[in-house]
Amino acid sequence: MIEAVGLTKRYGAKTAVHNLSFQVRPGTVTGFLGPNGSGKSTTMRMILGLDAPTSGRATIGGRPFRQLPNAPRQVGALLDAKAVHGGRSARQHLLCLAQLSGIPARRVDEVLGVVGLQDVAKRRSKGFSLGMGQRLGIAAALLGDPQVLLFDEPVNGLDPEGILWVRNLMKQLAAEGRTVFVSSHLMSEMALTAEHLIVIGRGQLLADMSVKDFISANSADFARVRTPDGEPEQREKLTSTLGEAGGQVVAEKDGALRVTGLPLPRISDLAHEADVRLWELSPHQASLEEAYMQLTQGAVDYRSTIDQRAGLQEAPAGYGMPGGAPQGYAGQGYPPGMPGQGQPNPYAPQDPYAQQAPPAAAPGQGYPPPAQGQPYGAPHPYGQQPQAPAQTAPAPQPAPIEDAR
Amino acid sequence: MIELEGLTKYYGDTLAVDHLTFTVRPGMVTGFLGPNGAGKSTTMRMMLDLDHPTEGTVRIDGKHYRQLNDPLTYIGALLDAKAVHGGRSAVNHLLCLAQSNGIPRERVGEVLDTVGLTSVADKRSKGFSLGMSQRLGIAAALLGDPKILLFDEPVNGLDPEGIHWIRNLMKNLAAQGRTVFVSSHLMSEMALTAEHLVVIGQGRLMADMSMAEFIQQNSRSYVRMRSPEPERLLDVLHVEGIEAVAVGNGSLEIDGVPADELGGLAARHQLVLHELSPQRASLEEAFMRLTAESVEYHAHDGEPVAAYAGTQEPAPSGWGADWQKKGS
Amino acid sequence: MAEVPRVLRSEWTKIKSVRSTMWTLGTAVLVTIALGMLICTLVRVDFGSKSINQQITFDPTNVSFTGMTLGQLAMIVFGVLVVANEYSSGMIRTSLAAVPQRATFLFCKLLVATALVLVVGLVTSFAAFFAGQAVLGEHRAYLSDPGVLRAVIGGGLYMTLIALFSMAVASMLRSAMLSLGVLMPFFFLISSILGNVSATRKLGRYLPDQAGQKIMQVIAPVNDPVPYGPWGGLAIMMGWTAVALAGGFLVLKKRDA
């Protein structure tokens, strides 16, 4: 069990972590989320006794990390996969660590096998890819067979097979009753791995609840409804019926309807009463990403606000493309109306985000992209128009899967 | 448009890329997938003429990369975010690239704004976080307003907000008719971004098809139905000769019959349905199934990859049981 | 073809936007002038105790360039960093994607860096000369003396060629550590050992630095018959540089970035 009580860290005048209190319980994978600069790494470093808190405390099993007897056998951590002496072989690196805490050498070969590095164990880690470095870091975390594990961005650099492996590994470790605390920026990955979430923003606790509650609390579940393709009047009829009954209906790109505010059986009944046939009626849970975006909207750091700008509107007058490149493109089979033609972008209306963009700036003189409604897609009003379907949501039953088109 | 024809690359005796032939088309995001060591990076480097193919050719809109006038205005690439001189400021890094391709100085400020780095434009990139470097790399790719964009692992180091942003950026670029080619290991991210997929394994082409097709070909898809009158529903299906499997909580799973047909059937029989949802496997499942044999440095121990990961770990009995007691 | 003026501008931006340029070139200028002045002071104080022979063959011009033996090391570092930093940072891939014509890329880069070094080298050479002569006082030489102007301009050319040679070696070896590891001992140890051991002296004369330094001599030392003149020596140094450049270009052309 990891516990933070009133944990605070100031670097000079800047408060990185402010009065943070939470518990990470054994037996589940707890995800640790927050925008860049929200204090995640600082918090993890304080838990591991690398940084000293300005006030408050962080304990593991009731004691501060530095007072733990033989800490490596109780706590394993992966903070920075690159924190390895590059000239040493993977095996030697682990052996050093093992000897420091009296772990038998046999265990080194075991963990090398577990992470799949047995064949490169003798190679110097300098030549390792990021993914291999990550595996080595995980091996080091597992070395003491600890009850408490901390992972910072564990899937960084891993390939899909490695990602799947890490996910299963963490779940397995938790199932054995260990405390597993994982920070990550990959919401879809977290949704598949973690059961519980701790979310911070600007150094303060924003949420401490189960993934399921978190998603329900921060976004709306919805139903996807499709009427027969060739009969638009059916679709209109259903839209108005559902609207009258108090549901919010939004048309999706592929002709389906996204309905919020009405339970599935009610939609079914209403369709039945209106004599509309349905080709699809499926429950969707919003994605963890949507819920996260909704929650952290105000807490992202300085870069994000800039990102929200509409990008490169103010094209400098007279920026003509040199070398005749754009003309060349237009003539080479691009759909008409592509950049540089000064026509409205035929694709823009299909993009749900583009509709919310501020009105396109005055068409740039001769510089193509700014003239398009939404050139580089900077605006992204989170949560207003949930787009990603529930593919990644950890629904109690297998979540309905749908590819994003 | 990027066309590869018989592209092959040997490093010494090692075959990294093996006669790759495919075309990346404009107007959509094409995902480029493959396990580590499959040859993705080599292929992308050959597209930019950084590595010389042993055999075969890459054509950018019909031309060899070297024949392009001001290549940055044709094709922008983010290969390695850290491939920047750390002592140079963000703005100077972009400026020297812009000058080499005759792109006006104003454009540098624009792309910095687009990626949100304006406030650190004059800082040396040495102090940048991975996420910031990534944004700088994206700015460099956008600099020449190119019609073709290559991104290698673009979400690396970005936070959720940044991931969301780059995803929409890529979709918008494609919607404007540009060619967008993205490699990534994050299947869930790819599923949300890409429309078309090119999958390679051990240097060979394994799939070149739409996302939907790929998932369909490499995994099971079915329809889930729920009704307040499950018996009648079963009867109706049975009469039609459709096989359904009950999976508890009143749900039925039906293989091989499209959802619209089942919906029509229910309507004809005045059956109330509470759910009628087509289910598809995730891209990850499909990808795992396809590439199970070609994963590079796990395959040769002969064990099914996913299986060993979950089961062997951790702490098999037999080691350290003696100190385990002391330790706790 | 990428247009050469554009690439030149781009390379100029690259050079002036990193601090190492200022540091290495500044060091080269300061060390060359300051050390030259120091040696000139010592020589002047010591002049009376020299033998007649030494006094007759005293070469005030050459003495004021003594600081270059150390100053050239900073030039070598500059030359190596200009090229090798592209590789160590990975910038080379970004650069070559922007300018895929590798010959244009390499020669524009070298041209810009060489032009800068030429200006700095000439300024240094003239400054070192005047400062040195001012210190030498009554033993001084004048720019209008025969051969002196040639030696002073030659000093600038020598520094330029040393930097260019280093750039060429760095483009062959593609690593700053490796290039410095080869160049530093070469110019500091091997060259002077070969040049001072009588058995190898004849060979040592044809090394780039020893041949090149000939141009800075106004009065030839006695008992040291050298088979080439000042310009001949510079030509030998240019030959070395040309070979290294060809090697550097071939490596860039053939190898994967």
From TrEMBL, chain A:
GO terms for molecular function: ATP binding; ATP hydrolysis activity. SMART domains: AAA (SM00382). Residues 2-227 form the ABC transporter domain. Residues 314-405 are annotated as: Disordered. Residues 327-365, 373-394 have a biased composition (Low complexity). It holds the Pfam family ABC_tran. CDD domains: ABC_BcrA_bacitracin_resist. Keywords: ATP-binding, Nucleotide-binding, Transport. The keyword RNA-binding does not apply. Belongs to the ABC transporter superfamily. This is ATP-binding cassette domain-containing protein.
UniProtKB/TrEMBL annotation, chain B:
Residues 2-227 form the ABC transporter domain. The keyword Thylakoid does not apply. Signal peptide: none annotated. SUPFAM superfamilies: P-loop containing nucleoside triphosphate hydrolases. Residues 308-328 are annotated as: Disordered. It holds the Pfam family ABC_tran. It comes from the Bacteria. Keywords: ATP-binding, Nucleotide-binding, Transport. Belongs to the ABC transporter superfamily. One of its GO terms (molecular function) is ATP hydrolysis activity. InterPro entries: AAA+_ATPase, ABC_transporter-like_ATP-bd, ABC_transporter-like_CS, P-loop_NTPase. This is ATP-binding cassette domain-containing protein.
TrEMBL record, chain C:
Pfam families: ABC2_membrane_4. The keyword Cytoplasm does not apply. The chain crosses the membrane at residues 21-45, 65-84, 105-131, 151-173, 180-199, 231-252. Keywords: Membrane, Transmembrane, Transmembrane helix. This is ABC transporter permease. The lineage of its organism: Bacteria, Bacillati, Actinomycetota, Actinomycetes, Kitasatosporales.
